[in-house]
Amino acid sequence: MILVLTTGTLVSACGEAAVEPPQPANRAPVAEGAIADRSVRIGGTDTLDVSGYFSDPDGDVLTYAVETSDAGVVTSVAVNSTVTLSGVAEGTANVTVTARDPGGSSARQSFGVSVVPFLLSIMVSPTSDTIAPADVDGLSATATDPDGDRVDGVDFKWSSSDPNVVRIMPPSFLLRSDTVRILAEAEGTATITATAQGASGSSTITVVNTDWAALKALYDATDGPGWRSKTNWLSDEPIATWHGVVGNTYDRVVELHLQDNDLSGEIPPELGQLSFLRELVLNENSGLSGELPSSIAELQALQVFLVNDTGLCLPPEPRLLSWLDGIHRVRVPRCNAENVLAHLSQAVQSRAFPVPLVAGDRALLRVFPVANRATDAGIPPVRASFHLPGGATHVVEIPGSDTPIPTAASVSEGSLTSSANAEIDGSLVEPGLEMVIEVDPEGTLDPGLLVTRRIPESGRVALDVRTMPTFQLTLIPFLLEAAPDSSVLRITRAMSENPLNHTLLGKTRTLLPVGDMEVLLHDPVVTSNHNAQSLLQETDLIRVMEAAAGYYLGTMTGPVLGNHGLGYQSGRSSFSVVDLGERSELVIAHELGHNMNLLHPPGCGAGYVDTSFPHPRGTTGAWGYDFRYGGRLVAPDAGDLMSYCQYDWISDYHFANALRHRLADERTDLAATVSAPVRSLLLWGGVSSRGTPYLEPAFLVHAPATLPRRGGVYAITGHRVSGEEAFSLRFDVLEVADGDGSTSFAFTLPVEEEWDGSIASISLSGPGGTALLTHDTDRPVTILRDATTGRIRGILRGESAGFADPDMASGSIHPHLEALFSRGLPDTEPWHPR
Predict the structure, then answer these.
(1) Structural domain of residue 529, as residue ranges?
(2) What was the pLDDT predicted at 815?
């Protein structure tokens, strides 16, 4: 019989239907044995292959599922036949495993799981430490298992037994949970504890104000009982009430002014413990003597260090000299300095307080042969060998003269005939330059005159030469909207085209540590102001909006209200009129001097004075040299550039301090890259001459972020409609040294997405009150900006400001201007990116 298979039926060849054989019944999986109870540590895991605990009579492939009775104690997951248990918290739970066959039949097994502590051992390092109030210290925690092996990935929780003594720094300061930063708040002892998985370790922190001990050491070492004034010294009164001491809120010493106070003796090494000290002024104490201790270099916060007119000196150790370079205002002689018989001078030089040389600038070499007795013998020939870093040597031969060789008592810097002199080309003046001087190289002098034949006696004189950052100066010609004077365009164009020879930049090139100079000409900017203070503020606003490096100098011709010039102290913006000839030349250099952190010498009605200026009546106090007009010496009684009395030249004190400031301040420019433009809030305003804060209308702009230095007495805050703060930052405004006491600021703050037009007000608060911007503020200002270059072309006030043409003086109309407008707060719509 032949069978034909069709769907669902067996049919015979004769057409008879066949009966289908019955299918066997599905049999359920079977549990095999029992899964033993298990233990897992908190934070640990355990795995189990459950395939051996189930079987299937039909040989079917089983799948597995797992569940826990308490996921707060242990969690479980099954992948194929592998079950993973993870300990969450100490306790017990039941875990059930279900094995299921393809037919849906199943079998189960349950077992108990105990979750136990990891039994870690935690060590906090250091286990103890002593710090002072306001100090920030770091601690670290290490966890080990019972076998002594290090355990990584542990989440530590930190706490302080007394936050009033030692406080845990906020989370934003943490690197990882195994490290913590702590802040000492007050004297006392606190225990800092790290906890994880039921274990803990701790460190004992003792807070002691070591400043008291350091001041006592100074008092004892310098004949404190004999001081002219010693009010409250060594008493129980707060340190800040002691004579000459300025303290902070933690009673740490930040300034120590003991000048002209009859101190005598040597400086003790404990003075280096004053880690918050910013100013140390000990000048005019003739009884002080000896080498400054090497611990003085521990004063890393120091910015003013003056010990002139004392017997103190700094050992010429590389570490100490490098530390001294980081201090902005310095007057410290070197120890063991030989009687200076030869030196190089540029604008000014001091034999007692050597002034560094600017690389690339020419210098005057002066050699002072000295005889041991009066003689008719003339100053002999001199050979100067300059050894360059690459190994090359340049020799300068200086012929002799008929001028008799002076004695040590009669030698004078005031006459070029008293020395052998030569101008040294700037190409030789570079870092690493060394010098050897041979006096009377042919040996024609009477040996009995004891004239020093070689300087130095052996080796070479290492010259202090500094490479300055390129001095980049951007000139902004302002045009008054109501009456533009186009002569400012002609003058600034000439300055930018020939900066090395233009007379208005003469004193800047000669009297300030400039080095290489690059002068850029900004497009004309039309303004509604001709007030010097407002023009300075607008200059700074342009600098901030354009985020360019270097210095910005706003300029104008014609009538200007207020001062002929203004500059921010230690800032990058200044303003000057430029149509007053020599007066403008002086003003430009003077205001740039303020940018380089130079204050006024006392006298003649000057404000913002440097009370430690070392020379009387604002004079330069050292011999200078003017290479112009054939070369001439400039006497020490000439007026300093920053003086209000007379202003002929630059002092050694100011030139050296301006050089240090530029190197420290502009070093960041060399490595920094300007951030990409982002949607930002332009915030600008200031403080009036009466001390009252004010805010200009805020703008939404597309510009790089330029934030002020954090910390200070002023706070600017943005509030939402709900009153909640959207942003807040504290800062200090820069001083304007030559103005009426008013000052200003400008910066750009990146906009956060969550603000989204919700800012209801912006406030500026400080000691003089609070200024407020709201949507009801109505002080219209328009900023005109070139959409192609991003440069500002106008800052205009009033309803018609948007119609002004920044090229009105040249007769052309710029086709790519965009107008940014604000009455107080930006409108809601612009907050949304387009």
Answers:
(1) 469-553+675-834
(2) 67
Task: Label the pairing between strands 38-41 and 106-116.
Answer: parallel
Query: Domain boundary at 82, 116, 150, which?
Result: 116
Q: Decide if 598 is inside a domain.
A: no
Residues 374 and 292 in one domain: no
Per DSSP, the residues of 334-357 read BTT-----EEEESSEE-SSSPPPE
pLDDT score, position 11: 42
Alpha helix positions (H), 547-596 = 582-595
Whether pLDDT at 724 is above 90:
no
The verdict on residue 51 lying in a domain is yes
Beta strand 693-695 with 699-703 is: unpaired
End-to-end Cα distance, the chain: 85
How far lies 157's CA from each of 166, 172, 198, 351, 479, in Å? 16, 15, 11, 60, 62
Last residue of a domain, one of 71, 95, 116: 116
CATH of the domain at 125: 2.60.40.1080
Cα–Cα dist 176/197, whole Å: 17
Contact by Cβ (8 Å): 192, 160? yes
Residue position matching structure tokens 């003796």: 265
Q: Does the pLDDT of residue 17 top 90, yes or no?
A: no
pLDDT per position as a tens digit, 607-641:
889 988 999 999 999 999 999 888 999 999 999 99
Residue linked to tokens 């200024």: 771
For residues 239 and 245, the answer to whether their CB atoms sit within 8 Å is yes
Could you tell me where the DSSP H helices lie in 13-169? none
Contact between 118 and 197 (Cβ < 8 Å): yes
Q: Which of 582, 579, 600 is closest to 591 using CA atoms? A: 600
| Of 247-251, 704-708, 814-818, minimum mean pLDDT range | 814-818
C-alpha torsion sign, points 223, 226, 229, 232? positive
What is the spatial order of strands in the sheet that 710-720 belongs to?
725-731, 710-720, 759-766, 769-774
Q: What phi and psi, each to the nearest 5 degrees, are found at residue 793?
A: -120, -10
**Angle at the Cα of 226 (from 225 to 227), degrees rounded to 5?**
95
Distance CA 711, CA 558 (A): 39
Rounded Cα distance, 396 and 363, in Å: 13
Judgement on whether residues 106 and 128 belong to the same structural domain of the protein: no
- The domain spanning residue 252 has which CATH number? 3.80.10.10
Residues 257 and 315 in one domain: yes
* Number of separate domains in the chain: 5
Residues 489 and 360 grouped into a single domain: no
> Within a 10 A sphere around the Cβ of 600, how many other Cβ atoms?
24
CA–CA distance, 537 with 792 (Å, rounded to integer): 14
The answer to whether residue 821 sits within a structural domain is yes
Let me know whether 399 and 536 are in one domain. Answer: no
Q: How far apart are CA 759 and CA 761, in angstroms?
A: 6
Tell whether 570 is covered by a domain: no
Which tokens go with 219? Answer: 């008092």
Asked if 417 and 349 sit in the same domain, the reply is: yes
Query: Which is it for strands 363-367 and 678-687: parallel, antiparallel or unpaired?
Result: unpaired
